[in-house]
Amino acid sequence: MHADTPVTSPVLERLAEAASDGQPIDLPTIVPPDERPEPLVERVLAPFQQFMHAEASGGLVLLFNAILALVWANSPWSASYHHLWETKVTIGAPGFGLTESLHHWINDGLMAVFFFVVGLEIKREVLVGELASVRQAALPLFAAVGGMVVPALVFSALTLGTEAARGWGVPMATDIAFALGIAALLGSRVPTSLKVFLAALAIVDDIGAVLVIALFYTSSIQAMALAVAAVVMVGLIGLNRAGVRTAIPYFVLGAILWVAFLKSGVHATIAGVLLAFTIPASTRISGQQFLHESLSHITAFDAACENDPAEFRTVQRHQEPIFALEDTAQRAQSPLLRLEHKLHGVVAFGIMPIFALANAGVTLPSNIGAAIGDAAVLGIFFGLLIGKPLGITLFSWLAVRLRLADLPTGATWHQVIGVGALGGIGFTMALFIAALAFGEGAALESAKLGILAGSLVAGIVGWLLLRRGTPDAS
Description:
Radius of gyration: 26 Å
Distance between the termini: 38 Å
Helix content: 55-70%
Strand content: under 5%
Structural class: mainly alpha
Largest sheet: 2 strands, antiparallel
Order of helices and strands: HHHHHEEHHHHHHHHHHHHHHH
Oligomer: single chain
C-alpha cells in the first residue's frame, strides 16, 4: 500500500495491518455480516448452484443424457431421434454460410469448444500443474502411455484381419468427467493425491487422443487451407506476444482457424487445442501489487461513503473506486484461468451432455448375442476393461520401479488398479474417435455398443475396487 494512502476505518486498518504483516486476511471476522435477507431468486437457485459446482455433477448429467439417448433410440420414437440430428442447419449469411447437419455442428463445432478447454487445461498443467516438472509428470505420463498403448494392442489383437481394425484408437481414450465424477462420489476413500494423479493422467491421455486424431484420423489434406491456418496461428501468437489479453481478438481469429481446419481435412476440433495454446497464461500485476492497489481503491470507496453510505449505489464518486477495483482484479487474473473457469460449466453441463445425447443413441440389435460377438465390440470392450487398467498399472509400476516417480501420497497399488479401471471409462472421447474411425453405418453402431458396455463395466469395477480403499486419515 502506498505510504500516503489514508486509512479511515477500523476494517481498513486491520486489512492493511494483515497485508503488511503477510498474514492471511479472515474477512468474516473483521467485516460485519450483511443482515439483509437474501433475495428470493438467490435462495431458490442456491441448490442448483451447489449442484453445478459439485465435482461429480457433470458426470451425472452426462450419464443421464447417455441413458436418455439410448432409451430414445430404442423407443417407438427412434425415427425422431435420428431425424433430429440429420436436420440441416445453416450458419452465416446466404451464399457465404456453412450448411451442415445438426450432428455435424455438434461434433465439429461444439466439440471444438470442448477441445479448447482441454487445451487450456493442458497448458495450465504444463506450466504450473502436475506436468510442470519431469518428476511431477513422470507417473501420470508413464501411466497414460501405458493406458493408450496396451488397449490399442488388445484391440488390434482381437480385430486383426478384419475391417474393424482401423478403430484401434477408440479404446485409448479416457473420459475425465465420468472418471473424476466416480472418484468424487467415493469421497475420502480416494486420497486427494490419487484424484490429482487421475486428473493428470486424463490430461496426458487427452494429449494422446488429440495427436491420434490429427495424425491417424485425418482425411485428405488441402494444402491451401492449412496454409491459411498457419498464417492465422502466426497472428494468434502475435497477439500473445503483443500482450493482448481481451478474448475477442483471439476468438475472431480462432473462428477463422476453425474454418481453415474444417476445409483442410484435419479435424476441425484441433483448432480448439491450438487456439488454447496461444491464450496468455500470465497476470499483469503480482499478488502483492494487487493487494496494495485493492486496499487503495477500498480506502477511496470508504472515504466516499463516510458521510452518506446509503447512497453509494448511485453517486459517481462511490462508483469510481469500484470500477478501478474491477480493473485491478482483471489485471491480477490470468486470461487462461479466467476462460477455463468461465467455460468449465458450459462444457460440463452443456456441450458434453449435448454430445452424449447426439452420439450415445445406439440402436440395440434384436440378436444381441450375435452383436456382442462382433470383432469391434469385443476389441473395444476388452480394450477398455482389460487394456486400460493393465496398461496404467503396469507402466506406473515401471516408473516407480525405475525410481523415476513415486506413488501418490497415501495411495496403494490396489487403489492404482482401481484408478486404472476408471481410466477404462472411454465414453465421450471414445465416441468421438469412433465416429472418425468408422463413419456412419453398422460399424459405428457396433463400436458404440462396445464403448457403452466397456465404459459401464469399467466404471463399476473401478468403483468397487476403490470403495474397498482405506478412508483418508484426515
